[in-house]
Design brief:
Blueprint lengths: L1 H15 L32 E5 L3 H12 L4 H14 L20 E6 L5 E7 L5 H11 L4 E3 H10 L10 H13 L14 E6 L5 E7 L20 E4 L3 E7 L1 H5 L3 H10 L4 H15 L7 E7 L4 E5 L5 E6 L2 E6 L1 E2 L3
Parallel strand pairs: 3-4, 10-13
Antiparallel strand pairs: 1-5, 1-11, 2-3, 2-6, 5-6, 7-8, 8-9, 9-10, 11-12
Bound molecules: N-hydroxy-L-asparagine (SD4).
Length: 332
């Protein structure tokens, strides 16, 4: 009976779509449809483009400087996100980041290139540029992700310097927080600056980077979405790239950035894909006081952004112009 019903559904679909062919799960993949990423150059007119989460004109400028000299998108995103990593006033990333509830600054970062290579570090302490350690994981180890002590030891073996990342300002705020120690993230009040950055270079190749100190006053050992390939960042050179920011737990549960890229693969524009991924979260999870934002770019150089709460913005640099734009949001 079930089989008959399934057969009827399939045959009526076939009637509606004469060119529709049914593929059994065992069917071989259509190899002709697979293109090699490096053969997929963009039309030159699209030109280099950089898009970042939040207000990041300095980071975008550093990325653009690399692209203007003909550099790779991978070099550009690394150079770009290193700017907030070294900025003590950016309290969601790298040096000066807010610590965990025990007063330790622990960092998460990942990077992905146009060939689908990926590198990531999680729960990394004492290293100012986790994005460069993530790149070294990608390029110099057979692994994708290193964590905690192992990530630190690897970084030191690569010549990275051990530093104290807790600034007096971040320590003072943390000690203030300790007086009540109520842990509850509040959308856009606990200021977010986590940077996710996507770039398209002059060759039409796409890369992305994401780096953060994670949620302020998180439990020790907590890792968010930002260093997780497919959650905080995903790039597929044949389609485009996406980054997420906000409460990582909600992004991880929905494989947010991977979802955005897959929705673009199915034909959504970057804007539609960001909206649909955010709606997926809204539909399944308690989002009322919680922020999640997505940015995305496709191979045609179209981009989009969307968030659950108002207050999310993003920075685009293209043809020597940089613009910060408020993203559309689900709640008004
Ligand atoms: C996290 N997604 O650790 C990060 C936080 C963030 O801007 O994006 N802050 O969950």
């Amino acid at each position: 009976m079930v089989n008959r019903r399934r057969f009827l559904t399939l045959s009526s679909l076939a009637g509606l779509f004469p060119s529709f062919s049914f593929r059994s799960p065992q069917s071989p993949v259509d190899k002709a449809a697979i293109t090699h990423p490096s053969t997929n150059a963009l039309p030159a007119s699209i030109g280099p483009l950089v898009i970042s989460t939040w207000k990041q004109p300095k980071a975008n400028a550093a990325a653009q400087a690399v692209l203007d000299k003909g550099g790779r998108a991978l070099e550009a995103v690394e150079a770009g996100v290193r700017v907030p990593e070294a900025d003590p006033n950016d309290m969601s990333v790298g040096y000066g980041g807010r610590p965990d509830r025990d007063g330790h600054v622990t960092l998460d970062a990942c990077i992905m290139d146009e060939k689908g290579n990926a590198g990531s570090v999680t729960f990394l302490e004492h290293i100012m540029h986790p994005i460069s350690v993530a790149r070294a994981v990608m390029e110099k180890t057979p692994h994708v992700m290193l964590s905690g002590e192992g990530a630190l030891n690897f970084a030191l073996s690569q010549g990275f310097k051990k530093e104290n990342l807790l600034t007096p300002k971040a320590e003072k705020e943390w000690r203030e927080w300790l007086k009540t120690a109520k842990y509850k993230p509040i959308a856009n009040i606990e200021r977010h600056d986590t940077i996710g950055m996507l770039a398209i270079d002059g060759q039409g190749n796409i890369s992305g980077a994401c780096t953060t100190s994670g949620l302020a006053y998180k439990m020790r050992g907590r890792v968010g979405d930002s260093p997780i390939i497919g959650a905080g960042l995903f790039v597929d050179n044949e389609i485009g790239g996406a980054c997420a920011t906000g409460l990582g737990e909600l992004v991880m549960r929905t494989c947010g950035s991977f979802l955005v890229v897959e929705l673009m693969r199915q034909g959504r524009t970057p804007q539609q894909a960001c909206e649909e991924a955010a709606l997926r979260i809204v539909k399944k999870q308690d989002y009322k006081d919680i922020q999640v934002g997505f940015i995305a770019v496709n191979r045609q150089g179209e981009y989009g952004a969307y968030s659950i709460q108002p207050g999310f913005n993003y920075t685009v640099s293209q043809q020597k112009k940089t613009q910060v734009t408020d993203a559309k949001s689900y709640l008004k």
